[in-house]
Design a protein that fits this description.
- 46% of the residues are buried.
- The longest helix has 18 residues.
- The chain is globular.
- The chain is built from 18 helices and 16 strands.
- The strands form 4 sheets. Strands 2-3-4-5-6-7-8-9 form an 8-stranded parallel beta barrel, surrounded by 7 helices.
- The protein is of the alpha/beta class.
- The protein binds 3-methyl-2-oxobutanoic acid and zinc ion.
């Protein structure tokens, strides 16, 4: 039988802490549910000490998830470990993940600790976490730039103190695969009782080798891989889960290793992260990029038509790319709508389904054919929970290249109408100025993008904004979809404001 590799997903921690990827509470719960459906073994739900919001989200996930271990990160500091335990304690299988840096540069300049002090801290804090839970993971931050013998002493100390998983992060994405594999082999040969624990890898992608290093780690005997959906994460990101899982599956002949991941949920998971964060993946991104299964050249198309395996080493179906079966339109009923959503992998609550169907009908009045991308966009803008505080009632724009643009915007909230007029150097700017005046918050537009979702004259477009509201540390992502670019932009701004207010 093949070796089982545990998948530890850190999309909600290492992924979420990277710029532009922040999520609100309901989005984090939705992602955690999807990760459970996907079959990940461990969900790292956040860093409890980081903020009360983080702790609340981890706790909500701990109460929701039944089939995956739920974990919180904690520095090797008692108050961090207390916070982590407080957040995960009600999970079916709670894990505390504590870490301290072990490389000379981190110990000297960041921790200002001697190697001996680091060893003492490991012994004390792993044991401290162990008093709370049996499932304790220890990470030696910047392990790959640490002295190998010192690293082995640290790992041995962690095992003695009760750690059940030892993580060897390539924190700055520095090693090449051969070196990473050698380090893992060295640890396996030199750390006493290492076979009693699970070794884990956590590889950043600064030199584009996060996935390759993880696979090298697996070859060298790693039993857990830490990764994120779409490879989101600090700087150049973390190793991408979809690439690791599909490499193991497609090259089972070589790795002889399996995961519990339901690969048909990969596409949906990836789309969910893109939608929620507003961070798209490149068309050429392996496994989930728009071109990953597209064959442009005549020779390739001819080959694939005759026999798919000529140019396809895995099928689109195996990662859950939906087949272009039916196209919906204005005469499609609720049944067809629900069935298509199911085919796309969405199981929505009744409340969300009702809201989505109303939006679908409104769209079908404006657009002849509704494609899968339209449906996905529509689902993405239906609020997951909480009231829609402000909704767009109407807008009138006056714009041109010889006048200053003006916008008259009317919003409704709890049955009341709020209205403002503003002028600026473009229709979107003028609209946003009017919206700022209505909601009365200090809003900075940090990022704005607009793209057509499908081809054709009646295509919908999607606007994504990142807003910094009242000086908050994290930006909030707002999305709006419409066949009209100004309306999509206004809706995106309102969506961001509502998310901020609901949080
Ligand atoms: O990259 C890293 O070293 C980390 C640790 C906290 C596991 O994210
Ligand atoms: Zn990391």
């Amino acid at each position: 039988m093949s070796r089982m590799i545990r998948i530890f997903d850190t999309t909600l921690r290492d992924g979420e802490q990277s710029p532009g990827c922040s999520m609100n509470l309901s989005e984090k719960i939705e992602v955690a549910r999807q990760l459970e459906t996907l079959g990940v073994d461990i969900i790292e739900a956040g860093f409890a000490i980081a903020s009360p919001g983080d702790a609340a989200a981890i706790s909500a996930i701990a109460h929701t998830i039944k089939d995956s271990t739920v974990c919180s990160l904690a520095r090797a500091v008692e108050k961090d470990i207390d916070a982590a335990y407080g957040a995960i304690k009600d999970a079916v299988d709670p894990r505390i993940h504590t870490f301290i840096a072990t490389s000379p540069v981190h110990m000297q300049y960041k921790l200002k600790m001697t190697p001996e002090q680091v060893l003492e801290s490991v012994a004390h804090h792993v044991a401290y976490a162990k008093k709370y839970v049996s499932n304790v993971e220890f990470s030696a931050e910047d392990a790959t730039r640490s002295d190998w013998d010192f690293l082995c002493r640290v790992l041995e100390t962690a095992i003695k103190a009760g750690a059940t998983t030892l993580n060897i992060p390539d924190t700055v994405g520095y090693l090449v695969p051969h070196e990473y594999a050698n380090l893992i082999r060295y640890i396996r040969e030199h750390v006493a009782n290492v076979d009693d624990v699970i070794l884990s890898c956590h590889n950043h992608n600064d030199l584009g080798m996060g996935v390759a290093n993880s696979l090298a780690g697996i070859e060298a005997g790693i039993g857990q891989v830490e990764c994120t959906i779409n490879g989101i994460g600090e700087r150049a990101g973390n190793a991408a889960m979809e690439e690791i899982v599909m490499a193991l599956k497609t090259r089972k002949d070589y790795f002889d290793a399996d995961t519990k991941i339901d690969t048909t949920q990969i596409y949906r998971s990836s789309r969910m992260i893109q939608t929620i964060t507003g961070v798209p993946v490149a068309p050429t991104k392996p496994i989930i990029g728009a071109n990953a299964f597209a064959h442009e050249s005549g020779i390739h198309q001819h080959g694939v038509l005759n026999e798919a395996s000529t140019y396809e080493i895995m099928t689109p179906e195996s990662v859950g790319v939906p087949k272009n079966a039916i196209v919906l339109g204005k005469h499609s009923g609720r049944h067809a709508f629900e069935e298509r959503l199911k085919d796309l992998g969405y199981t929505l609550t009744q409340e969300k389904l009702d809201k989505a169907f109303t939006k679908f009908k409104a769209l079908a009045d404006k657009k002849k054919t509704i494609k899968d991308r339209d449906l996905e966009a529509l689902i993405g803008v239906v609020p997951v929970s909480g009231p829609e505080r402000f909704t767009l009632d109407s807008y009138v724009i006056n714009s041109g290249n010889t006048i200053t643009s003006t916008a008259l915007i009317k919003l409704s909230k709890s049955g009341e109408i709020f209205e403002q007029v503003a002028a600026s150097d473009g229709p979107i700017n003028a609209s946003y100025k009017a919206l700022d005046m209505i909601v009365g918050h200090d809003i900075e537009l940090c990022d704005y993008s607009l793209k057509a979702l499908t081809e054709g004259e009646d295509a919908q477009c999607e606007a994504v904004v990142k807003l910094c509201i009242d000086g908050a540390a994290d930006t909030v992502t707002g999305r709006g979809v419409s066949t009209d670019i100004v309306e999509a932009s206004i809706k995106a701004y309102i969506n961001g404001i509502n998310k901020f207010l609901n949080d």
